[in-house]
Structures are given as structure tokens and as C-alpha cells.
Amino acid sequence: MGKRILLPLAAALLLTGCSSMQHIENGSSINETQPTTTAPAQTTAPPPATTAAPVTTMSPEQAVTQCSPQELLALGASLYDDACNMLAAFRGAVYPTDPARTADRPTDQAKGLLVTADSVHTPADVQAAFDALFTKDVPYKAEDYYFEADGRLYAVVPDTPADPSYVGTELTDVRVEGSRVDFTAVSYYTDPETGEELPTRTAVFSLIAEEDGWKTAALELPY
User: Fold this and answer.
1) C-alpha to C-alpha distance for 187 and 200, rounded to whole angstroms
2) Cα–Cα dist 62/6, whole Å
3) Strands of the chain, DSSP E
4) Can you give the pLDDT of all 223 residues of the chain as single tens digits?
5) Residue 62 · residue 21 · CB < 8 Å
6) Beta carbons of 221 and 87 less than 8 angstroms apart
7) Are 197 and 188 in contact (CB under 8 A)?
């Protein structure tokens, strides 16, 4: 699978239902809006309004119910790779590094590679990017995988490399409960030497609509 460098992003659910859902990814905006209709011209002037129309904001649960299964699948697919990339970053697989420049972590002498990404400079930067995509129940801490030395950020050398046989993942079986959406994630693999298809793997991918946007609640890396 081709890895992307993860840029700061926000996956925002405008809590007025799926008809005005906006997803901001890598600095670009994707809007999904329902067609609008134009009211016929008034032949007589309407009476003056005495009070402003109330503005109603849906709760996350209400907003989720406005989404069709197809819209939820599209949303899940748009966020799945971002979540995988961020989780993979915690084993040094996404942020670009310079393998020729290393340092030993002071606490246990684990070897780290210099992170060359412009978007992160401290473990706190990595944690902030992670918290923007995941709920607080996902217990990953940047300080366990990243450290500073000589004023620079280093990523601990990963224990296991990414799986070269990974091809991609398809989301199916949308299940909604309150503000939580569960998908079945079916991942596909091919032998990199023979091209032969390998057995698929199935896992659960979960999103939760929170006041500040969509967050990943459950994810198993497919590679």
C-alpha cells in the first residue's frame, strides 16, 4: 500500500444532518449537499417578521440518523486511510525520517530515526494530530513512540515493517447505534512475488460523531 504523509486535518460533521456534511481533508474541502429549490416569486409583499426563526443544531446522534448507509460508507472510506496512517505513525511508518541520523532514547536506549516532517517537531505535536482523529479511549501516547534529543524529534525504530502484501480495504455492513457507526473492514492481500491472492482479513472499524467532528473509536491496522 502506498503510504501518505499525514498532514494536519479536521474531519468535521456539521451537525445539521448529512445534507450539509463537510469533510476537510489535507487542506481541501469536500461538500455533500442536497439539491436546493427556488421558491416562486411573491406576488404580494409578505408581512414583516416579528421574530427571527430559531436556529436548531442537531445532536451527534440526530446527525448520524440523517445519513444514509451509502453516505456513511463514503464517509468511512474517506476517513479510514487517515486513521490507518496516523496509527501507523506511532510505529514510525508514515512521518518521513532520515535513517542516517539516529539517536538513542535516554530512558531505555531505544534507537530513534530523525523525523524530517515539517508538520511535527515535538511528541506533543504528534499527540495533537492523533487526538484530532481518535477518541480518548484509544490509548496511544506519542511519548511512548517519539522523543526529543538535541532539540529534534525522533521516532523509535519500528519493531515490525508494514505488510508488503497489503492491497486495500473495503468497508461493508454499516451498523449504527446512537452516535457510533461500526463497519466491517475487509482487507485484501496479494503475494508480492507471485501475484497470487492471499486470504482476506476482517476487522471492525468504528467512528463516533462528537461535537467537534468524527473520531475513530476502533481500528485494527491491516498492514
Assistant:
1) 6
2) 30
3) 20-25, 28-33, 97-104, 111-115, 146-149, 152-156, 166-177, 180-190, 197-210, 213-218
4) 433 333 333 333 333 445 433 332 322 222 233 332 333 333 333 334 444 444 445 677 777 888 899 999 999 998 999 899 888 877 666 788 998 999 999 889 889 999 999 999 999 999 998 888 899 878 788 988 899 999 999 999 776 667 899 999 999 999 999 999 999 999 999 999 999 999 999 999 999 998 878 899 999 989 8
5) no
6) yes
7) yes
